[in-house]
Amino acid sequence: MRLKPGALLRLYSLCGILMQVAATKNKVRGSQGQFPLTQNVTVVEGGTANLTCRVDQNDNTSLQWSNPAQQTLYFDDKKALRDNRIELVRASWHELSISVSDVSLSDEGQYTCSLFTMPVKTSKAFLTVLGVPEKPQITGFTSPVMEGERMQLTCKTSGSKPAADIRWFKNDKEVKDVKYLKEEDANRKTFTVSSTLDFLADRNDDGAVVSCRVDHESLNSTPQIAMQVLEIHYTPLVKIISSNSWPEEGQSIILTCESKGKPVPEPVLWTKDGGELPDPERMVVNGRVLSISFLNKTDNGTYRCEAKNPIGRNSTEYVLIVHDPNALAGQTGPDHALIGGIVAVVVFVTLCSIILLGRYLARHKGTYLTNEAKGAEDAPDADTAIINAEGSQVNAEEKKEYFI
User: Fold this and answer.
1) pLDDT tens-digit profile of 149-190?
2) Can you list the domains of the chain with their CATH numbers?
3) What residues does 283 pair with on adjacent strands?
4) pTM exceeding 0.70
5) Which of 75, 268, 388, 393 is most buried (CB neighbours < 10 A)?
């Protein structure tokens, strides 16, 4: 049977169509085991993000990366978007990796990797961009601050995403009772956070270091810190120190007036009993030190030390009592009369006790019933009791026991 040329051509076309359908079915069947794999990525603003798409089984099917705006970035190894920040890292039948440098907040979003099978298969990767907080600043401090005044220090930082955390420290000790405020920036992506430290100025805070610390995941465990040294002005604190705890006539004594204040107190003023020092020749003032030589009873009294600075003044007192060394010796020597009296009383009590004991033994010289002299409770005396108990005078004499 001979086929016409037209019929033969139609037969060849039909065979080609059948072969294409079979190939397509095989391709679809093979593509059922092909899936692109991606991972979410987090990067700090200004850093570099690496996007990787992998396929374990691939029969030469193309891979493509597209951005959140569905713009193609790379199709296999061919760059599709003119952006110098986007570069090809690796392209093969099993992987398509690209990098995005100098990442900005606008780059954040969902990126898509497409595997061009029938049907097309996709995998999503979300790119998170962290906003780095700006270096914090402390405001509200005026120097100097008077003791007792209220202080309000505010620490502020902007540009963080998510919102940063602020902590206060005073000399490395954390202060917990603070106010915290979070506000969204105009770009609606980052935040401005502030915290306020409120306290009353105290002299113990003078020279203290107050620090504001900003913690954020973009800082890689290295917080940003702002510091402020406090300067507190306060009235002097005055104290007198004596060189002699038991001053005696003829001795010397040195009284030192210690004063601490800010600003530094002026030279101190010494007075006695509310007036000037009565004997400048023996009572010499050298700065904060008062020296008194050749003490006598007339030096007894109340000595006052007064210190002042521009903030105020303060004073303290010391009561001086000069002792008589002879009276002291008489008081501290042994009291022989008292000791002799005590000894006499002890001896007398001992003798009386011995005499009473001897009289008692003499009056009870004789016998007492032993355990063998039973049943003689009604006898008039001990001898009779023994005789009645045993019925024999001889036995009674044998059962007597005498005190010697």
Assistant:
1) 999 999 999 999 999 999 999 998 999 999 999 999 999 999
2) 36-130 (2.60.40.10), 137-230 (2.60.40.10), 235-320 (2.60.40.10)
3) 292
4) no
5) 268
